[in-house]
Amino acid sequence: QVQLVESGGGLMQAGGSLRLSCAASGRTFNSNTMGWFRQAPGKEREFVAAIRWSTTTYYADSLKGRFTISRDNTKNTVYLQMNSLKPEDTAVYYCAARATRGPASGESGAYDYWGQGTQVTVSS
Question: For the residues 91-114, what does the mean pLDDT come to?
Fold first, then answer.
């Protein structure tokens, strides 16, 4: 059974940093794109970042320069480093993975596996 388990969320003051982790189990995703999405209260889920097997990265335009996605294939884990956090970053952050090798995508429908989400709350 495939599982993606996020961790690292919490409460942070504006300007602070958090690093989210997503550990995959049940299969390896070393050859697959993995990504992060987020969903704020009352809003649709939105793309945050994705990383291909080659470690090529993609970001939502509004988050470039503040967020960094990375992966450790030896641990089957993907990370999201979030710096200079703002109150508008408050959301549930979800890890996602594609079942097959393919291009990175900002569309949630392209991903086959999802974690349960981790809450990030940024206070002003």
Answer: 92
